[in-house]
Design brief:
Elements: H1 10-27, E1 31-36, H2 38-42, H3 48-64, E2 68-73, H4 76-85, E3 92-93, E4 96-97, H5 101-124, E5 130-134, E6 141-145, E7 153-159, H6 162-169, E8 173-177, E9 179-181, E10 187-190, H7 192-203, E11 207-212, E12 230-232, H8 233-241, H9 249-261, E13 266-271, H10 277-283, E14 290-293
Parallel strand pairs: 1-2, 1-11, 2-8, 5-8, 7-10, 11-13, 12-14
Antiparallel strand pairs: 3-4, 6-7, 9-10, 13-14
Length: 294
């Protein structure tokens, strides 16, 4: 871990460790799927590199206390930025990027070649721990076309968790880019929130954590005071139906609700721009975001 100057007193540090201990014990040996959003990566106010380094530290710490982290990442803002640089115009329908063959090539380049590599490198500063994967590797994610009008935008048909389970058993941290392929080998770009939920289900994860660029779920989208600390799957259904969750929040909310209904013990939505949000949510009594229970 990098050395940080800190004003925390030794007594406060000791109290925090004591507070964390029951959680460390409870979650030892349990799988936690962490979805690191492209927005959390792009939305770091000062320095995306420092934010990524901090996230990597958190993931390594989570692993070093006995949990089994799997990282799933998006990259929407980064795909958009490269398209802009190449003079391409992105078209969206219902929050999903219309993906022709050229756009799919760019999505693959950015997600597999750039964002995935950056996250793997940041984790591997701390030791030979992270392995970068795409959903196309070893048929990890079988995809199907969402809608002809959207082009190469996919839905998850099936997740084969064998490769992930083998990597976890060897003490490695899988980092998954969300490109999947159908049975004919045609690649599709899949919403990373949806993939994270499907992977958490397939692995029987203890936790599914979304790190994004908002503080959690709100009953009123533009009212910070309406933040939900805890919610049930039914409450999330109502939030989508009432329009309380909109845009990019919808797939997160739907993934949380489905995951807890299908065996994931808890799901969390956190502000990934807050330093060490993952640790605060997992290992402190108060937590920092929204926790979803069945």
């Amino acid at each position: 871990m990098s050395a940080h100057t800190t004003t925390t007193s030794p007594a406060d540090v000791a109290a925090l460790l004591v507070e964390a201990l029951p959680y460390i014990r409870r979650f030892s040996g349990k799988i936690v799927v962490v979805k690191y959003g492209g927005n959390a990566l792009a939305g770091a106010p000062d320095d995306a590199e420092a934010a990524l380094a901090s996230f990597a530290e958190d993931v390594v710490l989570v692993q070093s206390v006995g949990m089994l982290p799997v990282v799933v990442h998006g990259g929407g803002p980064q795909i958009g930025a490269l398209m802009n640089r190449l003079g391409m115009v992105a078209e969206f329908r219902d929050g999903l990027r219309v993906t022709d063959a050229d756009t799919l090539d760019i999505a693959r380049m950015v997600l597999v070649g750039k964002v995935n590599s950056d996250i793997v490198s940041a984790i591997n500063v701390h030791g030979p721990l992270a392995v970068g994967l795409s959903g196309e590797d070893a048929n990890l994610i079988t995809a199907g076309q969402r809608d002809e009008a959207l082009g190469y935008v996919g839905d998850v048909v099936e997740v084969d968790p064998i490769l992930l389970s083998r990597l976890l058993a060897q003490g490695l941290i899988p980092v998954v880019a969300t490109i999947g392929a159908d049975e004919d080998g045609q690649a599709y770009n899949i919403n990373a929130d949806t993939v994270a939920g499907a992977i958490a289900e397939a692995l029987g994860a203890e936790k599914l954590v979304f790190l994004t660029d908002v503080a959690g779920l709100r009953t009123v989208a533009d009212d910070p005071d309406s933040l939900l600390r805890t919610a049930t799957a039914v409450a999330l259904d109502d939030l989508v139906a009432s329009g309380g969750a909109a845009g990019g929040m919808v797939p997160k909310v739907e993934a949380c609700a489905q995951a807890v209904r299908r065996g994931v013990v808890r799901a969390h939505i956190l502000d990934g721009r807050v330093p060490h949000a993952l640790l605060l949510e997992l290992f402190t009594d108060g937590g920092v975001g929204t926790m979803v229970e069945p």
